[in-house]
Amino acid sequence: MHDEEERIRFVEDAAVVVRGGVIDFVGPATDVRVRGLPAAERIDARGQVAVPGLINCHSHAAMAALRGVAEDLPAEEWFNDVVWPIESNLTPRDVELGTRLACAEMIRGGVTCFADHYFEMDRVAAVADESGLRAHLGEAFFSSQGPEGRERSLEFALRHRGAAGGRITTALAPHAPYTVDDADLAATAALAREHGLPVHLHVAESRAQTDNSLARHGVTPVEVLERTGLLDVPAGVLIAHGTGIVERDLPVLERARGPVGVATAPRTYLKFGWTTTPVRALRGIGVPVGLATDGAASNNCLDLWQAMALTALVQKAAEGDPRWLTSRQALHHATLQSARAVGLGDRIGSLAPGRRADIVLVDLTGPHTQPVHDLAATLVHSVRAADVRTTVVDGRVLMRDRELLTVDVAETVRELGERLPALVDRSHGERIQEYDRPPG
Amino acid sequence: MHDEEERIRFVEDAAVVVRGGVIDFVGPATDVRVRGLPAAERIDARGQVAVPGLINCHSHAAMAALRGVAEDLPAEEWFNDVVWPIESNLTPRDVELGTRLACAEMIRGGVTCFADHYFEMDRVAAVADESGLRAHLGEAFFSSQGPEGRERSLEFALRHRGAAGGRITTALAPHAPYTVDDADLAATAALAREHGLPVHLHVAESRAQTDNSLARHGVTPVEVLERTGLLDVPAGVLIAHGTGIVERDLPVLERARGPVGVATAPRTYLKFGWTTTPVRALRGIGVPVGLATDGAASNNCLDLWQAMALTALVQKAAEGDPRWLTSRQALHHATLQSARAVGLGDRIGSLAPGRRADIVLVDLTGPHTQPVHDLAATLVHSVRAADVRTTVVDGRVLMRDRELLTVDVAETVRELGERLPALVDRSHGERIQEYDRPPG
Question: What positions does the domain Amidohydrolase-related occupy (chains A, B) (predicted)?
Fold first, then answer.
């Protein structure tokens, strides 16, 4: 829970009452007994702690199918030589199966909402619906696709907005400033304003991208957002990564007229040998920083507990300051800041009356989580994804005592396995895009 | 497995035959069926992979009792204000219970051997024996204890060497060059030579320690090891951490006449905002680098899978080179290099005939470990401690299908919980030692 100043607060011997998918009450279990409410279902979670469902603020869920396919490579080879050639083989069925596998992994790890940025997003929306997860979805496009890319992204966003009983929200999803030209970004900003949609895109993924942008255009990727109007979108812009956000970008972000959020996926940055997102500087100007995994082809998993711990650890190391990014700050990033980054700051991210009932029960009886001297530290630095016992979204139980109720993993893995040889074939010599070559 | 050039090798549909605590055969399961050997016990591990038991090359197991007690602090406050005051309360029973909890955590996470450096080590030896783990143990001492500290460390090492059916090996364990003076270190080196014992100590834990040592004594901590004879100990020296090993230390380590190993615990360094162990430079001069967790009061867990992944990730980031520290290199650190670092390079660290049967079975059927495009990457970057199904040491099953057979966690946690208020009391204003003040 959070108090009025948004500080993390823990309640012992607590009960959470859910009614119609919404949290109705959080407080001492004795109060619930006194009120004597009849319940359709009771979950006894003694020895466990209830936390807000985790939010994966930037993912490419279907890339679970490509976990481990491109290892120990610099980003440009990872994209140009492996991932983008393989993605030219992607079929809607591959996306569906990869996303289903990812949803199983996320539910098992206590993720209740994921922001996804990929292709064939109709299938992703269908899988999100069937899996029971909450999702914030955008159909990715490049300028190389012509105006049709942008139009498809808009059409997707309008068609699926509010789907799955409101669990699905949508965004326009240009790939990045280095693959989508300024005119296309400006047109996207105009569409976003016209239709009340947010925008989700990769920005300044690495410091090298910022340096390239400066060398070629004289502006940083964040300055490109500003001049194309993307920082004035009323429904907000979600910046994925931002490890290349530099000093001069801070005043630009500070004067943004629309809400800006950043998603940090620290495991990807370590793997590529990059620096990390400047979380402290962003916090200093009031930009919420949510936690993310990125796709499993770079990460290699969709584990938000790991993202939370790594954010705390890597930020301490990056700043050379062990007092920065305490466990409570990490929990704030994982809850309210993540909810705000994906535009759901008033609906999820806290266990409080009126919020959607996205709740995760975490077992603390394992030897690796005992004793508990400091519950925030236990949650950030000791708990692992496998300690999640029960995952609830909108009041619906998606996993109970580690048993997945909405996804058949074995069948998904079986069919995916049959399709992998065709999916990973690179003999055609094609790729869907070129990395690090600016458009135009 | 490893081939003749020590490259990691995987065998599909393999069987491992164990006889008298030793690996008798590793190879195709069909070969075992042909030989028709009768077995006292068979473990069916379809869908799982057998790997050498993991080795925790530097720990303070009993500090599991202090997990989360000193969070988000710089090292000097962590030591002086919290940990060393608390450790002045330590009783043998606290050490026993903390170690038992740690052993449970390690067995559940596929650790089969731990190198421990702490106090009241008789109790640690007893718990290692009862838990079934392999252990490399040293009784820590400071020069502030007078010659008795060193003598007790020797007495412990001689009394327990070869105990628990050979599972326990021992070392002399001075704390560190900044808490043990040169005369005491030289006397330790002489005792090590006389008795054929190795030495295990903290060296250059942080860059600040190296800078302090240079400012005060004109030499680095590694140069202190050289001038006190610790680099000439025939049974070897195990250097914990070494994040402050600098360029000028490399030729010193290279001309060492005894075996030198380094234990790296990357999670601790991130948490303290330190730089990390220069693994690439150490590999360049042939020094084996093993993986470690350090104590759970800094880490906050004893998870070698996490140490392995973090070593790969942090080394890539530290070198700015995503090609360095591949998954196969990480596995080599986790297996043979770790075995060598703790002086057991000919007995454990590989699944090969003649080696002790320290074997871990890892389940790969979870959604987060599927599909498997690259088994080395799956093991390093996707597998988590909770995927370990079965842990075997010296041919004895210590955990079967996640059920611990040698440790009662609930009872350990219960009794420890009763003792914690007295253990963490700091009102006495004492501490066992002063951090960062050189002796003499």
Answer: 50-397
